[in-house]
Amino acid sequence: MTISRDDAIDWIKACAKAMAENRDYLTQLDAAIGDADHGANMDRGFKAVMNKMADISDKDIGTIFKTVGMTLISTVGGAGGPLYGTFFLQAGMKTAGKMELSLSDWYAVLEAALNGVIMRGKAELGDKTMVDALTPAVNALKQAVDGGASITSGLMQSAEAAKQGMESTIPLVARKGRASYLGERSAGHQDPGSTSSYLILKAAADTWENRS
Q: What angle do CA 127, 131, 133 make, to 5 degrees?
């Protein structure tokens, strides 16, 4: 089994639902170390994406992802817009013309998306950013692909690694973004960007389970 174009659309819809449901939670996390707008920004961005889905639902996966990326760049405020926009634009470039994806394809997508985020944000592992959730997720996915895991298993392993990466940001002192202005006071708080990244990867695992 593979991840189809319709599956990809279902994932984007699940991302929008997750951002709406966790809007207040993400805002609370951001209030502690940021501008208290991450939840509202992500929710607004994905609502704008939903408004475009009818127009792109018959396109290839790459076109869908690129449209998501461009929409997020134009509608999400703060650092989230450029970073998540880059995430989806890179994903779109990796899936150009494709109507279905294997688990190894999905690994290539996430790897490219992560590298794009790192280049755009100039962040690295341990800086207390979304990179701290995405990096272990990509690494876990690589191990799953190399081990011949099913799509369901690989996605679950990836999401679980993202969760652990998200939780690992709590004791960290932020070295990037608004949170870095707080210095040592940023420790003890979970990074909102790593949290939204986890929610996006969990949405993929939940949406695409049983495709093995």
A: 110
